[in-house]
Design brief:
The chain is of the alpha/beta class. The protein has one domain. The protein contains ten helices and nine strands. The strands form three sheets. A five-stranded mixed beta sheet has the order 4-1-5-9-8, with helices on one face. A hairpin with a 2-residue loop joins strand 6 and strand 7. Helix 8 packs antiparallel against helix 10. The two termini are 30 Å apart.
Length: 290
């Protein structure tokens, strides 16, 4: 993917450098505990950051101190930070045109927070092990760019367009928030009769964000003609690699559909390509279409 023509956004809050971490005399959480809490959060419809943040405080025995690098605002100068800023800038330009035209809503630009290790968010503690996420409470996106390396090493998916897809997916959640979907989803999950039903709602939300990422890519390519078949294959490979069924088989040897929160590999690829082919938000109604 060529990003030279993309306008870099200044809506970046860069907390990297020294990074953020908990220094607790009682000992912090290991990555295994973080992953378990993340899965529990997904299963219960609770933002994993909230659970992890509380657990960190308990693990520290109340004596922990949060350490964070001073935030820098604006477009980062380093290569990775500048790439993220350019992708974010293009999401701003695309959705500022698409959202009023297709949903009769004005687009409000979110802040993207870059961090290393851990940082605070409006939804609790952000940990790199959780992967990128969107917090609807402060309307910010959180990204530890080491996730891009994880995509290559652990998930077998990498490349600039695949990384752009990850950012665009989180922006897709911001779009869902702006159109009023996320509050409705949260109420529906609270009222769900069981965990499997709540998880199924989460899957629909995540697949729609995949589709919105595809809509963004469609419009970006119309504007810049900057992606090709190889780029699309990169994104498809990334979407397939992070399907719930594939991740569960890798971690435990089998998949449990009722526990899925993001969708299968096939579903994620289908909805990403649906948005990419159509460029239409209406085509992304995952609650009405299978």
């Amino acid at each position: 993917m060529r990003e030279d023509d993309l306008r870099p956004s200044e809506n970046i809050e860069d907390r990297r450098g020294g990074g953020g971490r908990f220094a607790a005399r009682g000992g912090g959480l290991g990555i295994g505990a973080v992953l378990v809490l993340t899965l529990i959060g997904w299963a219960l419809g609770i933002n994993p950051a909230t659970l992890i943040g509380g657990a960190e405080m308990v693990a520290g025995g109340g004596n922990g101190a949060y350490q964070s690098a001073p935030a820098r605002t604006g477009t980062p100068n380093d290569q990775v930070g500048n790439f993220v800023a350019r992708v974010l800038g293009e999401t701003e330009d695309v959705w500022s045109a698409v959202l009023p035209a297709q949903a009769n809503r004005q687009y409000e630009k979110p802040i993207l927070v870059l961090f290393s290790g851990a940082t605070r968010s409006g939804c609790g503690t952000a940990q790199s092990a959780m992967g990128p996420f969107y917090c609807p409470l402060d309307r910010k996106l959180y990204l530890d760019t080491s996730f891009f390396q994880d995509m290559q090493r652990r998930f077998g998916g990498g490349g600039d367009f695949a990384y752009a897809y990850v950012i665009a997916h989180e922006v897709g959640h911001h779009v869902q928030n702006l159109i009023g979907l996320l509050p409705k989803v949260q109420r529906a999950q609270r009222d769900a009769p069981d965990r499997a039903t709540a998880n199924a709602i989460s899957v629909r939300v995540e697949l729609m964000a995949d589709c919105f990422a595809g809509v963004w890519a469609n419009k970006m390519n119309q504007r810049h003609n900057n992606i090709d078949e190889n780029d699309v294959r990169e994104a498809v490979r990334a979407a397939s690699a992070i399907g719930d069924d594939r991740l569960e088989r890798q971690s435990q040897g089998y998949a449990v559909p009722d526990s899925f929160t993001h969708g299968t590999s096939q579903q994620r690829v289908h909805w990403l390509t649906t948005g990419l082919k159509t460029g239409s938000m209406k085509a992304c109604d995952t609650f009405q279409r299978q």
